[in-house]
């Protein structure tokens, strides 16, 4: 028997974060809305297969593609800011390791006529593209993600990623939100950014440009590279088809939710 797209364990973590359905009118109530679980089953099907919204199979019982699109839009507005971190906190927060975080990014192509947060990809003959920026803990659990244009320098996202890390509790004392050290490749080389991290009590471990390879950071940074390699297995994240960036960011957050659920 095939594994369900949205099993009971994952749905129990996602359901508390979703907005409650609106109360129906007694007079002229209109068509009965699709339950949240069925709509999110359709969203997961689109995320994993990468099919267009209009081709969503009706046999799944998840309504039309536009219904699932609206549900994803509302989820992005209300809960997907740090939704995947909240899901992980409620189950195994003590497993998050704040000893060291690693950063990485990956560029992806965009379909024609896409909207904001796109730019010429320097690694793909200046074709339109976007970029995923990810910061992960020592295990490779994604903590914060950002979507930018493909021509955005990685170093410009170093401080915003670190500042956006939510506070992690579960241990005695004040919840921590700053790691002891941050690791990055040569794309994050900047002395000004190193000084900013040191003022925050964070030790920067970043490779320097124009130095021989073999800095040894690969022994520790492979976890974030593995996380970056996990995301494209969800085919909707391989190419950006969404004109509105918030929809693609919601897909990115949902992909991180599924990755977090592996560690629970």
Structure in words:
The structure is a single chain. Strands 1, 2, 3, 4, 5, 6 and 7 form a seven-stranded mixed beta sheet that branches. The chain is 35% helix and 15% strand. It has eight helices and seven strands; from the N terminus they run H-H-H-H-E-E-E-E-H-E-H-E-H-E-H. 33% of the residues are buried. The two termini are 23 Å apart. It has 264 residues and is an alpha/beta fold. The chain folds into two domains: 33-78; 83-263, 2-Layer Sandwich (Nucleotidyltransferase, domain 5), CATH 3.30.420.
Q: Quote the average pLDDT.
A: 82
What structural class results from the helix and strand content? Answer: alpha/beta
For the termini, the CA-CA separation is: 23 Å
Helix content: 25-40%
CATH architecture of the largest domain: 2-Layer Sandwich
- CATH H-tier superfamily of the largest domain: Ribonuclease H-like superfamily/Ribonuclease H
Tell me, briefly, the overall form: globular
CATH third-tier fold name of the largest domain = Nucleotidyltransferase, domain 5
- Number of E-state strands: 7
- State the low-pLDDT regions, or none: none
- Major beta sheet summary: 7 strands, mixed
Q: Rounded to an integer, what's the Rg over CA atoms? A: 20 Å
Q: Please trace the helix and strand order, writing H or E for each element.
A: HHHHEEEEHEHEHEH
Integer count of domains: 2
CATH class of the largest domain: Alpha Beta
Total helices: the number is 8
Tell me the strand percentage band.
15-25%
């Amino acid at each position: 028997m095939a594994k369900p797209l949205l099993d009971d364990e994952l749905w129990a973590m996602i359901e508390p974060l979703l907005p409650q359905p609106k109360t129906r009118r007694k007079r002229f109530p209109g068509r009965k809305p699709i339950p949240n679980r069925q709509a999110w089953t359709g969203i997961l099907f689109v995320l994993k297969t990468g099919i267009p919204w209009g081709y969503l199979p009706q046999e799944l019982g998840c309504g039309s593609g536009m219904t699932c699109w609206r549900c994803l839009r509302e989820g992005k507005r209300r809960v997907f800011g740090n939704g995947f971190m909240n899901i992980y906190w409620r189950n195994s927060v003590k497993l998050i390791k704040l000893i060291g975080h690693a950063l990485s990014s990956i560029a992806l192509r965009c379909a024609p006529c896409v909207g904001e947060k796109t730019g010429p990809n320097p690694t793909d003959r200046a074709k339109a593209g976007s970029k995923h920026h990810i910061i992960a803990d020592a295990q490779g659990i994604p903590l914060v993600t950002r979507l930018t244009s493909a021509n955005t320098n990685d170093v410009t996202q170093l401080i915003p990623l670190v500042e956006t890390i939510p506070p992690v509790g579960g241990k005695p004392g004040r919840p921590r939100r700053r790691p002891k050290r941050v690791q990055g490749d040569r794309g994050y080389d900047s002395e000004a950014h190193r000084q900013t991290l040191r003022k925050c009590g964070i030790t920067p471990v970043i490779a320097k440009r124009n130095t021989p390879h073999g800095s040894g950071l690969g022994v520790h940074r492979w976890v974030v590279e593995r996380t970056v390699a996990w995301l494209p297995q969800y085919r909707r994240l391989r190419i950006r088809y969404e004109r509105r960036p918030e929809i693609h960011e919601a897909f990115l957050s949902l992909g991180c939710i599924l990755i977090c659920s592996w560690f629970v």
